Write the structure tokens for this entry.
Amino acid sequence: MTTVIVGGGIIGAAAAYFLAERRETNVLVLERAQLGSGTTKGGLGGIRHQFVDELDVRLSRLAMSFWRVFDDITGARHDFHQRGYLFIANTDGGLEQLRASMPLYEKVGVNVEMVGRVSVAELVRGMRVDDVVGGRFGAEDGYGDPPQALAGFAAFAQLAGVQIKERTNVREIMRSGDRVTGVRTDDDEIAADRVLLATGCWTAPLAATAGVAVPIWPYRRSIMESQPIPQLSRAPMVIEWESGFHFRPKGNAVRFAMPNLTTDGGIEKGPPGPPSAYPGDYVPLDVPASLEPWVRARAAWRHPLFADVQIRSSWSCYYEMTPDDHPIVGPVPGVEGLFIAAGFSGHGFMHAPAIAQLVVEQMLDGRTRALDISDLSLERFQTGRRPFTATVL
Ligand SMILES: Cc1cc2nc3c(=O)[nH]c(=O)nc-3n(C[C@H](O)[C@H](O)[C@H](O)COP(=O)(O)OP(=O)(O)OC[C@H]3O[C@@H](n4cnc5c(N)ncnc54)[C@H](O)[C@@H]3O)c2cc1C
């Protein structure tokens, strides 16, 4: 059997790892640029259990059990730290929204607690809390380094015999009747029994070449990195619930993530709605000029250590959105041998080991064993089923 994975982001690399780990031979990863050059290179690396849908929490648990032992299993180094996620609320309404998911965490057995202002201040020393009514802290959450993790997955897979071809653009998915038969690149035709589309926000146009409609579109988001602020180097991820502003340490520096701003200066945490056609517009990936003053002001308000913060670098990348902010994972109905794992809507890094393990189970065994992910099937958009609550962080 020949398996082609299209896309060398964290999902494609993790899928290659799990195929290698299952001793699958004849596996080929095709990446049109370089490994990690898509959304994966731009992510913040956050890993949290604090979702509102049960499947997401369970995916996080499965993924976290892997992230904890990533270095031992892959033999690679990953800058992973389980330092927690701290959500803080400025309003009673915000605090109630945070509290609403607590029964879910208790049900799944994840260590998350509501915390008062005093505990918030203890969790991040010196942080301004006089405007904070309370928060929610997940001690099992943390953060990692997406490009490092990707490199670890890819190296393991390659050493086990997976072929990785960069600078190889896949133009078309080939099918014969209701079966996939391979892919056509700019230079070649490659026959394959199984094709996995791990092509992030670029999945819709490629899937369309096989006659498959996939509702995934790109949405620009940005990150900024500060000068070294070593006093915060062990801080948890901190998220302002109402504004969407969040930050985490990265080495000695701090990385800030923020919502987009509308032309009238309002906050836009996610896209206003799906585009009228897919994939939607690829707006340029420059960092909007309005963001830095907003970030500097929010940061300075939140912590005195950010009073004169310097933004040393900044970048934008595309979130890979779907209409319900959940990925599309699994076999494509009606096209035997074709699989998708894409559209992670801002949380594809954290779930990568879980999703890759599960989609590989679907490919090799015809069903998943570790967790039922049938709700993530493309079928939900074909039939109008809506199993999830849409949320963007
Ligand atoms: C600002 C920002 C912050 C984020 N923060 C977090 C976070 O804290 N935690 C988290 O879990 N996630 C976060 N994410 C989301 C996360 O980074 C993504 O969900 C994840 O990287 C998606 O990985 P992927 O492999 O699906 O896609 P990608 O990394 O985009 O990989 C897809 C690859 O496919 C290749 N490709 C596309 N079309 C073709 C083709 N036709 N032929 C060959 N190759 C092709 C592309 O070149 C690309 O390399 C964030 C994202 C952004 C933008």
